[in-house]
């Protein structure tokens, strides 16, 4: 039972507590919890403990739960809510290379006052430490007024989101009863590109794959062997050049099985957003959309499957020049999935393509790096309408139901393993440079994000 | 005037001096003179000074001559020869990465006793420090018997052979009169693959090129931008996959202008060598020749032009997985040239291909890394017959005139700038692993190589 008066007091408490909340976030951001780099395993543990201690200090029943990989942090508040809710975020971060492109050290976060407002600069500021802390700080403000935490909350914080979440599905299965709730709240998405508040209702899936092609048992002299010996970099290049055709369509057999066309309703909604692909690209120094001919910009990033080469390496690419015929070549590639595309089937079709083009003297090794189907939420749950008006009220702009190009496998996992839908609300901006040097999060996103969760909690608990 | 008796005494002196000669070579190999890595510039200077001091100690008039790059070491003996000779070698070495593939540190050379005989293990043992020292030690043995050095010798040692020789041509132009001789002796090649002594009479040329493709002004999240933003790695891959067709022929316009077919005589000579491509490849863990259909193995490595990708890099290829859409991609490629192919024309044709396939949002930067035409020697110079019988006598096997797949631009430079031919005599083996981890040089190559030069000098000076 929350009166408007109580709500206003909680919102005010959040504003009054902003400086202290930012200090806490800075402490969190100083921990280099890069989950994909084994050298940082200890830092990931430190970040988990830091978060557990914060939650316990707020009165949550909080634990660090070890897995075979990085740990999960779980917490619960007292029962007694109209409906219980599971909140999800991740405390691990992306690698920081190329380090020399950072204007300040990625793990020495700082507040920068820019013409458009203050920003929090540092790896993880937006993805996802800053975002998950908006919910924690909402709970803190709530308790400072009500004396108790919002009831019926379950919190789940993951430390492997940026490294394929190997431990997540087993953990969800082992703790299904403890984690299941009426709805999941996920804070790992952004607002619409013009800053309009948004609830993400569909996400692309992901298939990540690493390919290693080996040929000779050593690097060779390209003069002595060139023209006679297989070059694994050439083999890799020839294979990767066949995955897409000239129209940007992916050529793997059966790849488009289960890819839906946009409904007219959704197409109309998205058209109304007035997305300008050229303007969107201009923020990163580009201007010409590539990709499938005959598709709109939003379709390409929200509703069409893609193939990207995320990394490639082979031979000598350092200073100077080395006339070597390389012994091996490596690529990391990924597919974004939509609709009902089957990650396993697409991974198999890709591996078949590689195998079919492999010359006699080459051997290939595959490593799977995460696979998850796309997700579409059931927006008939009244919580979506409630949240939409809460966001509209907080930001003073009509909130939108949007799609997202990124993959948040957890949403699909919640559906498949816990049988529950997710409401994806986030406050990131397109210029937050997540996964890139100089990542930032607007202080305004952090402040209004906290206030937005207060409104949502007031309406739902 | 040399009698057989004197010759035998010099040969004996070389054998007696072998242990001390190996000690000197070890000192030389301990200097990490990697010319392509700016971090090793000081080591290259040290190697030059070491060599100058050795030569001065032998009675040569020797100098270290600085250039805008790494220095040249030059030396002369007293006049009075039947014909003066210019000897060339290079004291710089290849980079050593991947370092973890070395069984012992590359710059801690050692003698290893193997079933087939002792070898000198270390970077530069064969390419080219060990080879050039065979000539220096031949001069030492000569002087110990004659009391004087072989007359009419000019020595030129380069420190940039493994990094495109940027200073060489200007140096040759500036010192043409001092360097010109009746014939150049170059010791940077190998014996025929079965260990038969050989004089290399034709060499492939080289065009080395680095391509850097830039797209967005930062690495992007492949979820947020994938499908809409240009991926420079994909662009690079698509371009490099078009350079060769399915038959292994290079598709650049005019590429084969000036490529000669083998003369029937030469084809017959080479056929008589009984080259077995499968056996040759089996030494490096391969078995299937690739390359142009319908060409013999020796043709492919000695007499046909090639295209190789020597290195490629872009995006994230480290541990784990990073769903990044890279901002840039880099490749290092090279062409091997034959006959009268024009390096400049071929570089231009390659750059045209890249430019023609570049999408609107990508920019390309090119860096030239060396360009030299192929070389064919005039084997009518009687010195070739004299050297052939000297080699035959020393090794007890009929010496052969052969080709070489590698590029030794100096031979072409001597022809074009000094108007003199070169006689390429070397004692390397196909399993010396030059340019690769665990490079070695047979002690027998070092010993008989020294003795071979003694015989050649006795016959020519």
Class by helix and strand content of chain A?
alpha+beta
CA radius of gyration of chain A: 23 Å
Q: Quaternary state, please?
A: homodimer
In percent, how much strand structure appears in the residues of chain A?
A: 15-25%
CATH homologous superfamily label of the largest domain in chain A: Zn peptidases
Contiguous helical run count of chain A: 15
Average pLDDT taken over every residue of chain A: 94
Q: Which architecture of the largest domain in chain A would the CATH scheme give at its second level?
A: 3-Layer(aba) Sandwich
Gross morphology of chain A: globular
Largest sheet of chain A: 9 strands, mixed
How far do the termini of chain A sit from each other? 8 Å
Could you please say which CATH topology of the largest domain in chain A applies here?
A: Aminopeptidase
Helix percent of chain A reads: 25-40%
Uncertain spans of chain A: none
- The top-level CATH class of the largest domain in chain A is Alpha Beta
The tally of beta strands of chain A, per DSSP, is 18
Largest interface, by Cβ-Cβ below 8 angstroms: which chains and how many residues each?
Answer: A-B, 98 and 98 residues
What's the structural domain tally of chain A?
2
Organism (chains A, B): Paracoccus pacificus
InterPro entries (chains A, B): Cyt/Met_Dipeptidase, Peptidase_M20, Peptidase_M20_dimer
Protein name (chains A, B): M20/M25/M40 family metallo-hydrolase
Keywords (chains A, B): Hydrolase, Metal-binding, Protease
Provide an overview of this structure.
The structure is a homodimer of 461-residue chains. Chain A has helices spanning 4-16, 18-29, 41-57, 129-146, 168-174, 176-179, 222-225, 232-240, 264-272, 277-282, 297-303, 343-356, 382-395, 409-418, 443-460, and strands spanning 61-65, 72-76, 85-90, 110-114, 117-121, 153-158, 183-186, 198-203, 205-214, 220-221, 306-315, 324-325, 328-337, 363-372, 375-376, 400-404, 422-425, 440-442. The first copy, chain A, has 461 residues and is an alpha+beta fold. Chain A has two domains: 4-203 and 375-460, Aminopeptidase (3-Layer(aba) Sandwich); 205-259 and 305-372, Alpha-Beta Plaits. In chain A, the strands form four sheets. In chain A, strands 1, 2, 3, 6, 7, 8, 15, 16 and 17 form a nine-stranded mixed sheet that branches. A four-stranded antiparallel sheet of chain A has the order 11-13-9-14. In chain A, helix 1 (4-16) packs across helix 4 and helix 1 packs antiparallel against helix 15 (443-460). The longest helix of chain A is centred in the N-terminal third of the chain and has 18 residues, at 129-146. The radius of gyration of chain A is 23 Å and the shape is globular. The mean pLDDT of chain A is 94. At the A-B interface, strand 9, strand 10, helix 7, helix 8 and helix 10 of A face strand 9, strand 10, helix 7, helix 8 and helix 10 of B.
């Amino acid at each position: 039972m929350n009166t408007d008066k109580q709500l206003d007091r909680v919102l005010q408490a959040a504003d009054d507590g902003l400086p202290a909340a930012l200090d806490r976030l800075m402490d969190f951001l100083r921990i280099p919890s890069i989950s994909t780099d084994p050298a940082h395993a200890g830092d990931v543990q430190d970040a988990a403990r830091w978060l557990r201690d914060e939650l316990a200090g707020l009165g949550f029943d909080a634990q660090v739960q070890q897995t075979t990989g990085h740990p999960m942090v779980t917490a619960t508040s007292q029962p007694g809510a109209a409906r219980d809710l599971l909140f999800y975020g991740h405390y691990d971060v992306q690698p920081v290379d190329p380090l020399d492109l950072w204007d300040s050290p990625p793990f020495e976060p700082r507040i920068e006052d820019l013409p458009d407002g203050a920003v929090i600069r540092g790896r993880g500021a937006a993805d996802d430490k800053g975002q998950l802390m908006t919910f924690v700080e909402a709970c803190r403000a709530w308790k400072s007024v009500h004396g108790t935490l919002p009831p019926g909350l379950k919190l789940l914080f993951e430390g492997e989101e940026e490294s394929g979440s190997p431990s997540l599905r087993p953990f969800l299965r082992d703790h299904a009863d403890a984690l299941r709730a009426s709805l999941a709240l996920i804070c790992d998405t952004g607002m619409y590109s013009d800053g309009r508040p948004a609830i993400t209702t569909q996400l692309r899936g992901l298939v990540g794959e690493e390919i290693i092609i080996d040929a000779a048992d050593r690097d060779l002299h390209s003069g002595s062997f060139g023209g006679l010996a297989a070059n694994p970099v050439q083999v890799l290049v020839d294979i990767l050049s066949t995955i897409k055709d000239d129209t940007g369509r992916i050529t793997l057999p059966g790849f488009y099985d289960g890819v839906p066309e946009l409904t007219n309703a959704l197409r109309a909604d998205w058209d109304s957003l007035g997305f300008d692909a050229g303007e969107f690209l201009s923020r990163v120094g580009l201007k010409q959309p590539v990709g499938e001919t005959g598709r709109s910009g939003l379709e390409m990033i929200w509703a069409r499957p893609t193939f990207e080469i995320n990394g490639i390496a082979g031979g000598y690419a350092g200073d100077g020049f080395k006339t070597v015929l390389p012994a091996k070549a490596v690529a990391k590639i990924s597919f974004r999935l939509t609709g009902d595309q089957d990650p396993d089937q697409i991974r198999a079709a890709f591996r078949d393509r590689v195998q079919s083009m492999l010359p006699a003297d080459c051997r290939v090794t595959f490593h799977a790096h995460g696979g998850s189907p796309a997700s579409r939420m059931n927006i008939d749950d009244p919580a979506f309408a409630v949240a939409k008006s809460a966001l509209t009220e907080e930001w003073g702009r009509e909130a939108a139901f949007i799609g997202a190009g990124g993959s948040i496998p957890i949403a699909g996992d919640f559906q498949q393993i816990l049988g529950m839908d997710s409401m994806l609300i986030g406050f990131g901006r397109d210029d937050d440079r997540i996964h890139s040097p100089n990542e930032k999060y607007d202080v305004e996103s952090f402040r209004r994000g906290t206030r937005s969760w207060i409104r949502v909690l007031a309406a739902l608990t």
